[in-house]
């Protein structure tokens, strides 16, 4: 059985874009005037990135003041609301956020959302009708991560994969059409990281690995049955591991919240093994996912005391050695998007959008503009537009000049 990952051309149909690597093929040039706001709309509480597919924008949010969540669809061109479908959830409170944090995944006429309390729901993209729903943490008797669910669903073939956590359910796969449980595995607490695909052994294996990070290790799983193809231990993270693994050529870069970053290489063959390529103990992504170019890695690392600040660090992808660092690009977070013409779009936690030269020998900012209020999201880029959200609104701005 050949499983094909879900991607949709120039759309942004899932977490970190078409290839789940924080990249777009679109070119972005420096702007002279602030990018024009084309439309904006009020949505409920949450920090999930909008998903863009087939002319629609999908936003997952909490209904204000209620223990309910909703998926909302907008026309990508005009911002007109097309539908919204709400459902009940278990009570949840947090000092950080009380709404969905996982990005919806869109495949064909299906939208998959994973709420902050672990309710996994499949909707019809056209109508908003609920197709099926599973309260994963209730069904599997699992405990929520400290900061709630952040794992964005990964669809490959007829399976949708998420991290739950707990005995026998660290990683779980459901049937995309019925919501039936396909397989479950591993016994350790899940992290708040999202999975990615990695073709270990190059083209010698028909089924790519699904790479998950738990609080204890990074693992490559067979999406057909959940069997472990390879694993690599990580420093224990009691609060979970938030950054998504970055696939860059034959390397997988893993970054923890406070215990540094490690690049691993997976050997080719039917029984691959994972080996350390390099390690940078002082390079911790906290809860921001980085981006990689052909030879560089860009990560946001945090200094929490005496005053919180987020530093942008550029390192050599082969060695892990620091090329340059720009201090205080934000307080806690920076969402990065790699463009198709050697630049990076950076959205900080105050809603400031910056365009930098990703090829320069030092930090080189080309332009900047404020596009939204305080946010913890990574933006979506599709059709010459950037879609971002803050605590209450989704905003669409024009990037193409």
From TrEMBL:
InterPro entries: PQQ_b-propeller_rpt, PQQ_rpt_dom, Quinoprotein_ADH-like_sf, WD40/YVTN_repeat-like_dom_sf
Pfam family, one: PQQ_2
Chain ranges of the Pyrrolo-quinoline quinone repeat domain: 70-325
Protein name according to UniProt: Pyrrolo-quinoline quinone repeat domain-containing protein
